[in-house]
Design a protein that fits this description.
Chain lengths: 346, 346
């Protein structure tokens, strides 16, 4: 890849679509989360699935790479993971088959596609691209803090891994359903595959973190919204740098704070207490005001997956009353979620 | 280098010392700042200088690479910069001469040593190292936030480029002069060359920023101090991510806030006002408390290079009175600086 023209130089990643979803030999649905996420959130960009012995299925049409190419597919996406994030030996022949059929390959695995000699050789011979979505584009710039046109919403969290991507996707869909001109802006590997582009913020060199976020959501029409997937948490002792660079560079007009009731310790730490929702609102507004003094909190997204429906509804109502803000679980939707959407757009 | 054993894997950089300072063909002293900084702050680690037509001099003995090797030198350091950060064609033969004499090469230039074929070939043939101090070590880990033993001081700033490195060096020297067991911990290229090691924090991938700072200042004896060179500013719209990761990972017991009176706009930005000293103290203490609840401000370092001695003395006294903290210009030293040192150690 290095010796070729890089279409992502100086801009966010852009992926070839639509996709053929590769399920490999996966027998555990938990390892096919990427494929299921793409089916659920980017179903119109997926022409079919392709497997070599998998027992899981997305329900999409089964196709060979050549059939998928004939149906319009531009890339094969590795839609599965395994415990080491490695590309199995038995996957290589079908991946070469996809390259030969005219498909690029998109991967979010830890292993780099270009470091597998058979794939590198075939891609070079055929003029195909091997795209690792964990690898940032080249040509990143340092941030300027200059105000950009258009409107921006960023999902932020009291912690990692509690629904920032899902909330951003759900808000983007709801905005679009109301006729709002909106783009979902992805910052992690699954989100990037769903959106067909984005910026892998956690893999960007620190000096360019805010600048990369600026590139991810460029100037837009005054009524256009970018809904930006958050990363990490300002309160996390490992990942706050990612969160602050993303907050400064996104210069959001609106934040939505994502929280999981009952989580008391920050993910992957020993003894770091999760902040309260109020603390998370206050610190994100305080720091975000540096690049957008008009920043405000549009509401709170609760991940109530551990609660039964009645408990969830009671908690959502009580938290909304307590905080004086719209509160909803985007997965449960309903009137509470409509109120959250309105709270963001008002 | 990639195919060889990497002695820095999983730890901070460590450079071979002592040095031979390479001045190349430099005629403008401003471009020899690295060499002068090494002479001033690491003079006992510099055996001599080597030039190919330079008119500037550090005053150290003039030596060939072979003479320097015989005098104990382990590495040639490129002690100069030019406007593009490039390694000139006329430099290559003398650099190969240094490799052949048994010296490694250390560079902080933008251009990578290993990407110059003649140098890469000679280093591989001779078993020598080409060390770019802008390149982080391999094997970085994500942060844990776990409390480490020993004491830590971090210099922080209202802005970039106003004396955080100089303040940390001066405090380290003053601690040592008082018999305190202390290490200067470098986070930028010049500091790393002075210290003979460190972590280029602005070049670390964001996900590892706090973890890299944790690796830079490991567990130590209870009375040992790490004095850590700060980077950027929490208030800078481009670089705050670097500053927050460094703050969280350093978990300082004491911060010293560095400020340049009269600077009103953040470096490299259009219209971002510099914060007040009080704002910088408050935000660094607020965010630093996440990983060290006992964090406190030891005082303020003013860069008064734009003032005459009387003006500087009056301002230092007035600011100390106003803030209720020790305030000093480390370059001017004196009783005010002694009070700052005592304020940090108390």
């Amino acid at each position: 890849m290095n010796a070729h023209f890089d279409p992502t130089h100086g801009s966010a990643l852009r992926l070839p679509q639509p996709y053929l979803l590769f399920l490999a030999d996966t027998v555990d649905a938990g390892f096919a989360k990427t494929a299921f996420g793409l089916r659920d959130w980017a179903g119109d960009k997926c022409v079919g699935e392709f497997a070599i012995g998998a027992t899981v299925s997305t329900g999409l049409p089964v196709m060979t790479p050549a059939q998928a190419r004939a149906a319009g597919a531009r890339a094969l996406v590795i839609g599965v993971a395994n415990s080491g994030g490695v590309i199995g030996d038995t996957w290589i022949a079908p991946l070469v088959e996809a390259l030969e059929a005219g498909l690029d390959i998109v991967s979010g695995m830890h292993a780099r596609l270009s470091e597998i000699p058979e794939l590198a050789e075939a891609a070079a011979r055929l003029g195909r691209r091997l795209i690792d979505v964990r690898v940032p584009p080249t040509g990143l710039r340092v941030g300027t803090g200059a105000k950009r046109t258009g409107k921006r919403l960023l999902t932020v969290g009291t912690d990692c891994a509690l629904g920032k991507k899902y909330t951003a996707l759900a808000l983007s869909s709801a905005f679009a359903a109301r006729g709002v001109d909106v783009d979902f802006r992805a910052t992690g590997q699954t989100g990037i595959m769903i959106a067909g582009g984005g910026m892998p913020m956690d893999a960007v060199v620190s000096d360019f973190e805010a600048g990369a976020a600026e590139m991810l959501s460029p100037d837009a029409d005054p009524d256009h919204w970018d809904v930006i997937e958050g990363q990490g948490s300002l309160f996390h002792p490992a990942y706050a740098a990612v969160s602050l660079g993303l907050l400064h560079g996104s210069q959001p007009d609106v934040i939505v704070v994502c929280h999981e009731p009952g989580r008391t310790v920050m993910l992957g730490t020993e003894g770091f207490a999760t902040p309260t929702i109020e603390e998370a609102i206050a610190l994100n507004l305080e720091l975000g005001a540096r690049t957008n003094p008009a920043i405000r909190c549009g509401g709170v997204a609760l991940n109530t997956s551990q609660l039964d429906p009645d408990e969830a509804a009671r908690l959502i109502a009580a938290e909304s009353e307590r905080l004086g803000l719209p509160v909803a679980d985007p997965i449960r939707g309903g009137a509470a979620f409509d109120a959250l959407v309105e709270g963001c757009l008002k």
